[in-house]
């Protein structure tokens, strides 16, 4: 496979991927390199400058406005907050997708959801504490519910308040 044909194929793949999924620049590069590795297994591509091709495609997507890390980060933060994810969890997700610390911090600061509301939403979705279907097991499962919130990235004090409150209580 020639260099031009590979670049055309990867460009098509990039557009198709970005048509279906939101992505950061680094994640797009990772996806394209993975696709290239599959092609290398099938054909002789070792002598090609794969990193250069992938970087050109990513730069082209940036210049066309198809991909933007700031928009991606804001979208990801909003979606994860609606699910009740903690700030720590969101930071880890953004870091894993290759979003820079500065862009991630800006996206997190623009979000107005507080940790307590996110913890309540997480507990509600996971049916922890007051949102348990069988209220008789609430006291038996208290420590495990607190631990689940802590593993999700919430502070211990927020986890305890969330699990000990009633479902219709307002928390400060």
Give the tags:
single chain; 172 residues; mainly alpha; 3 domains; 67% helix; elongated
What would you note in describing this structure?
- The protein is mostly helical and 172 residues long.
- It is 67% helix and 0% strand.
- The protein has three domains: 3-64; 69-110; 115-164.
- The protein contains nine helices and no strands.
- Helix 2 (25-42) runs antiparallel to helix 3.
- The longest helix has 18 residues, at 3-20.
- It is elongated and about 65 Å long.
Brief summary of the model shown:
With 172 residues, this protein is mainly α. The chain is 67% helix and 0% strand.
Class per helix and strand makeup? mainly alpha
Overall pLDDT, averaged? 90
Q: Level of helix content?
A: 55-70%
Q: What's the total number of strands?
A: 0
Number of discrete helical segments: 9
Biggest pleated-sheet summary: none
Give the low-pLDDT segments. none
**Terminus-to-terminus distance:** 62 Å
- Number of folding domains? 3
Q: Layout of helices and strands, plus pairs?
A:
Layout: H1 3-20, H2 25-42, H3 50-64, H4 69-82, H5 87-96, H6 101-110, H7 115-126, H8 142-151, H9 156-164
Helix pairs in contact: 1-2, 1-3, 2-3, 4-6, 5-6, 7-9, 8-9
């Amino acid at each position: 496979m020639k260099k031009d044909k590979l670049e055309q194929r990867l460009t098509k793949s990039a557009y198709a991927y970005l048509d279906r999924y939101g992505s950061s620049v680094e994640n797009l590069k990772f996806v394209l390199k993975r696709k290239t590795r599959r092609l290398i297994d099938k054909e002789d591509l070792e002598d090609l400058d794969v990193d250069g091709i992938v970087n050109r495609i990513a730069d082209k997507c940036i210049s066309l406005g198809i991909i933007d890390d700031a928009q991606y980060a804001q979208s990801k933060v909003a979606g994860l907050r609606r699910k009740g994810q903690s700030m720590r969890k969101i930071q880890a997700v953004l870091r894993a997708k290759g979003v820079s610390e500065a862009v991630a911090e800006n996206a997190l600061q623009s979000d107005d959801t507080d940790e307590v509301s996110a913890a309540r939403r997480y507990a509600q979705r996971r049916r922890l504490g007051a949102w348990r279907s069988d209220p008789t097991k609430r006291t038996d499962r208290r420590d495990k519910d607190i631990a689940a919130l802590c593993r999700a990235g919430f502070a211990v004090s927020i986890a305890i308040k969330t699990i000990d409150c009633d479902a219709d209580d307002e928390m400060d």
